[in-house]
């Protein structure tokens, strides 16, 4: 579509049209459309279960061969990736921009902190579930308000949310600890975990390792759910709402309701991410949920490829592992400690700009586009050949 | 009564600054339908340039002029080089590009100028006027702030209404194809628009810095509140930007002054006001166009 | 872990038989240096810390690690401790507790420090005190006067305070006001966290009935107009501030705008006249200069300040700063850092030739209260208390320095009485390097 426009008329306004190129990562064909050659089972659920099992094994291997510090990095990666997964579904598949997911993570984190503060805390899975529920409730409220908003108005409203919600924690400082925040007592690993680690690798079952495992388990579960959603009828409806509003409405789809659903799903993921964050960082404080967090999530999903879960994972990995790399590079170039620390956000900003100008589909999306273009070229070359040979 | 006057005056002064920033956002929106999330850090960058000049011994006024000029240059260059490639495309791309610009510029400021808090001078006194025996928080500096914003707005109105270039810019914003047919260089007008908006943004950055601390992220709250003000007023309406800024400034000041521990609630109050306005009028208070579909 | 500790203690005891020349000299006779614990090698000990190098609390506090580092660099030149170099790694947390958590994680898990010293900030360090204690990392001489690091050694056995705690400071301030300004209407300007709370509870023990207003600010929100206006509206003519230095400047500036001129009393952590003056002097060309606004304000002190040019500690620290320091002048914050490094050296010497984490903590508990150093009053370290120095003077700011208006008085948390301090100021040893014996517990 875009190569029909001549460069001269490119100057001007941003349009309302659907961001089809940048969300190419979301356009993975659903299972039934893929013919033949994959070794994975055809239908969605068994395929995803197999991928889940393989990923679990891979994760255990990764956690056991890496150092305690790398384990803590993987724990950090897991909560970024959970939130990014939800956000990429919202923005990539449904086209809604949210700058406020940091606030939804805060809702989940404070819920977890409150529950863990009790003298006899509930079991961890229940607490995390509670965080999901609370964040979902907040997300539903926001989603209903946001459903009528578009583009920059939505961005602005979610921006105000990102900045405003932590303010509530400061106001109700008796419950939420104010600016200092709430310290979170990290839950102890069960005995079964220690024996599991011993049999698998013989490493020490430290609390850092346990937290990394909790994070990875939550990540796998979340992505399993999201992947199934994306490939289902719900995912297809979301894409219809994103790309062809008028047609979708004519087909009887209630735009507002589906938008709210997308928002709610992404809020649930953010809530779980917040809960994991609370126990990994051992703190729920307003300073942990600044605007920078929401922007970082957006960066991750854009660079990875909007709408793609794999892209969200890659983007989050970049978010966690790039800063130390860039900071060390900066130190090598002679910048002092604090200057080098600013190099990472600078690189992010530049990468965002460059990516959106030259490769708006992000990492995964660009690869998918190339693959589809190559396939189409092959198909049309074959056709031309057939037509040529017929024509004689 | 005294306290009420204090709080109201503070709110008006703050509100004027929000209006200025909101006006910059509206200018850019009207010409390119892009929200410039980077407006704040662009303004911060020019403020730091001004600070460097002041630290080198130059007077405040020289630094002010240089800051405004560099703001214009920055705005024009950003539009031509970074924004132009995404202008014809979907909104999402443009939003993300300006967000990336926001992050990058702020980090660059920290690298070049350092992250520590530095005080920024104001050319006029900071002691409040004595009125009827007590001191009100209206200082010579606040008069300067209000005055400069009003003068800037007046100049902009004059530019758009009474000059040919202003007419050309409005034409380019309203209907590009027609403007082109009439011989207007649309691209140049857009660049000019961004440059002017950046000047207004730089001014607001300098005004809020005077008599306070600056650090790379000092504009962050202004960005949020300025944006909220612009949306409250309606992104299409310059009058809306001004009204929105004043409303927000006053409302937040009352929350800060009258609610117990109100300073923690200020950002929540902004959120609530925004949601209420958007629920009633999704396009802002002064919006007139309805949504266009496909 | 305990087996290793027992083994090293045993070998240390055996090695101790040869006697030590003290920490400042070359390697001890009789016994070798071993890698006796995480972060310790035969020729180095790795210490870590977090500070606000950027952000709202950076003015002043970001200079503390430069002082610590300068002291250790000169110490290393003279042979370090038991021939080991002290490696001091510090990271920026921007006074942001979530970032403190992250950098502490890096220090403990990636850098594998032996101990943390001088972690700065009440809201920030409280985010990591559980983690450090769980991991068994000694958390010495926290740069904050909160009670959390010292009043509960059962919960936090690894943590130790260093400076006079905010509650004791509040008590001394309250007593002074009750005696010298019994008719004053007192307003409080407090940071909205444990720092402000501890100070408030100390003051209220003495002048609860004189307090007419207590206003709180959040570090990060630089508009303190409402708080100052409220203090003025309540009629306070004497304001006590428990705040960080930027907020000293902000409160002064805001008061100027409102035409409000009470007697100010700033807690020690926020009152350095050079720093505050530097922050204020650019605000209004020519109309607000230097520390003129701060002149006449009262504050407390527990360390010598740079304007005391005849003080032997200041002379030594100036020399150390000239030889081993970086850019800039010696400031009170650098003196603070060097004094902490001095105490840390005493602790490492007492920990013995092959220190362990447990051994270090035991040594501080056992002999820390006997150490002399630049602080005016002794430390309160024991098995039951990990609180830092116990006394303070009251000073009045004069220009860029201060003059004493009340000599050192000592107290403790809770109901403890305030008493005169009968001791004398210690003089620095040669090269300002202590010479403590190894504690053999």
TrEMBL record, chain A:
GO terms for cellular component: plasma membrane. The keyword Protein biosynthesis does not apply. CDD domains: TM_PBP1_LivM_like. Residues 1-30 are annotated as: Disordered. It is a multi-pass membrane protein. Keywords: Cell membrane, Membrane, Transmembrane, Transmembrane helix. The chain crosses the membrane at residues 48-65, 77-97, 124-146, 153-172, 210-230, 260-281, 287-304, 309-326, 346-369. It is found in: Cell membrane. It comes from the Bacteria. InterPro entries: ABC_transp_permease, LivM-like. Its main location: membrane. One of its GO terms (molecular function) is branched-chain amino acid transmembrane transporter activity. This is Branched-chain amino acid ABC transporter permease. The lineage of its organism: Bacteria, Bacillati, Actinomycetota, Actinomycetes, Geodermatophilales.
UniProtKB/TrEMBL annotation, chain B:
Keywords: Amino-acid transport, Cell membrane, Membrane, Transmembrane, Transmembrane helix, Transport. GO terms for biological process: amino acid transport. It is found in: Cell membrane. One of its GO terms (cellular component) is plasma membrane. The keyword Membrane applies. It is a multi-pass membrane protein. Its main location: membrane. One of its GO terms (molecular function) is transmembrane transporter activity. The chain crosses the membrane at residues 12-29, 36-54, 60-82, 94-117, 143-162, 182-207, 213-232, 239-259, 265-286. Belongs to the binding-protein-dependent transport system permease family. LivHM subfamily. This is Branched-chain amino acid ABC transporter permease. It comes from Blastococcus saxobsidens. The lineage of its organism: Bacteria, Bacillati, Actinomycetota, Actinomycetes, Geodermatophilales.
UniProtKB/TrEMBL annotation, chain C:
Pfam families: Peripla_BP_6. Residues 44-399 form the Leucine-binding protein domain. Keywords: Signal. Residues 18-39, 421-441 are annotated as: Disordered. CDD domains: PBP1_ABC_ligand_binding-like. Transmembrane segments: none annotated. Belongs to the leucine-binding protein family. This is ABC transporter substrate-binding protein. The lineage of its organism: Bacteria, Bacillati, Actinomycetota, Actinomycetes, Geodermatophilales.
